[in-house]
Amino acid sequence: MAEEFLSLEEINKRLEDAIHTVIWDRLAEKMEDACGLLEAEGAREAPVDEGYLRAFIRSQVETNPQEITGWIGSFTEYAPYVHQGTGIYAVDGKGQKTPWAWHGESKKWAGWHFTVGQKPNPFLQRAIDKKRGELLFVFKDTLRGL
Known about the structure:
Strand order of the largest sheet: 1-2
Number of helices: 4
Shape: elongated
Distance between the termini: 34 Å
Number of domains: 2
Radius of gyration: 23 Å
Largest sheet: 2 strands, antiparallel
């Protein structure tokens, strides 16, 4: 069996790749920790009417060679409307300006209702604001122990 000799450039490239992989994996783990922290706080901050919004707040981390992305949100159809508001109260004035009627199907909201909108309840933003210091601490430790 012939021995393989590597050039100094190849050794440096392999070391850089290995270091990048270790750090990238560690950053992805820390992103999962941070998202879990925000997921839990977001659930605590979410308003409770019938409990669906609070029950379906989830987080997810996606990675590719260029970026690590953390996502926290809700699978409920109405979560953006609760968070950003509707009608005349909508964030950035993007809501409907005229009153409207809606029909509820649940026991609590059965029947027709008239509204000009719902005020925003930015529960996820409050979670971020409350946990900002802890989030920084999660990432601050990323390179320790490597």
